[in-house]
Amino acid sequence: MTPQNLTGKVALVTGGSRGIGMAIAAGMVAEGMHVAITGRNDAHLLAAKHKIGDSGPGRLETIEADVRRHEDVERTIDTVVLAYGGLDVLVNNAGIGIFTHVADMTPEQWASTIDTNLTGVYNCCHLAIPQLRKRGGGYIINVSSLAGKNAFVGAAAYCASKAGLNAFSEALMLEVRQENIRVTYVMPGSVATGFSGGDEQKGADWKIGAADIGQIVLDLLHMDPRTLPSRIEVRPSRPPAK
Ligand SMILES: NC(=O)c1ccc[n+]([C@@H]2O[C@H](COP(=O)([O-])OP(=O)(O)OC[C@H]3O[C@@H](n4cnc5c(N)ncnc54)[C@H](OP(=O)(O)O)[C@@H]3O)[C@@H](O)[C@H]2O)c1
Closest residue (by CA) to atom 25 of ligand 1? Predict the structure, then answer.
């Protein structure tokens, strides 16, 4: 991958139907990349396709698929390769947050958090790496969270899933770096999205913009292949004083 030119490169962005994933996909399409986005809800995917529309020279495919389901991810990778001829970039962005105390958290809520935020990333990496190898290398970008290093009350499952994702990303980076596959994990603080049922307008004046995470992803992809910023922390510049 040349540092400056992303035109025609192929990316899969999981959870690209809303929030950060949609902003990442929009930035890529504007750069001329061919992008596939996934999500569990077809209506969200169609709305994203409408919003991203013809925002750039790149193409956009939508695929209804749940990252928790290995067979869904298998179908996703096959669809991307059939549509675009290969895969260069995987962005593991799909994630959920269920914020409740451990004593009140159901086994289903726990499993859903770990299955989405951690096992889902394994599913995508496991199935994408052979495709990246076929291209002679590629890039995997994992959207983690500052919650993976800064624990807080009511977030045990979420914090554990993101701390696990950080460790997974570091081990994978060491595993595939000699094959020209770079791995970065990005750890944002509060981003203005509807994450976990929140109101994306609330705090939009001080939170990180989803488009800013999209910009960070593009900056990583533009980075000279000899260099790897493997862990990125990003936070609001001026959060309200507590
Ligand atoms: N917002 C923040 O403050 C913040 C901060 C740090 C990190 N993050 C991380 O950033 C990522 C994106 O969050 P966001 O704020 O953009 O949230 P969001 O607006 O809720 O978007 C989440 C996206 O993931 C998809 N998704 C959820 N579960 C999925 C599954 N099992 N399979 C496939 N797609 C799935 C959703 O689509 P469907 O619901 O239609 O499936 C949606 O497209 C997450 O990993 C989150 O942990 C967010």
Answer: 15
Closest ligand 1 atom to Cα of 94: 24
Q: What is the mean pLDDT of residues 110-125?
A: 98
Task: Please name each of the domains of the chain with its CATH number.
Answer: 10-234 (3.40.50.720)
Bridge partners, residue 61, by sequence:
36
Nearest to 195 by CA among 124, 142, 143: 143
Task: Please tell me the least confidently modeled range out of 51-65, 97-111, 211-225.
Answer: 51-65
CA distance 112 to 109: 5
Q: How many CB atoms lie within 10 A of CB 28?
A: 30
pLDDT at 52 over 60: yes
Q: Which of 84, 122, 139, 158 is catalytic?
A: 158
The rounded Å distance from CA 38 to ligand 1 centre is 11
CB of 214 shorter than 6 A to ligand 1: no
Half-sphere exposure of 195 (CA within 13 A, CB side): 26
Active site residue 158: yes
In whole angstroms, what is the distance from residue 232 CA to residue 216 CA?
A: 9
Residue 217: name the closest of 124, 166, 141, 144 by CA.
141
- Looking at the whole model, is its pTM more than 0.90? yes
Cα 195 to ligand 1 centre (Å): 6
CB 206 within 8 A of CB 239: yes
In three-state secondary structure terms, 231 is strand
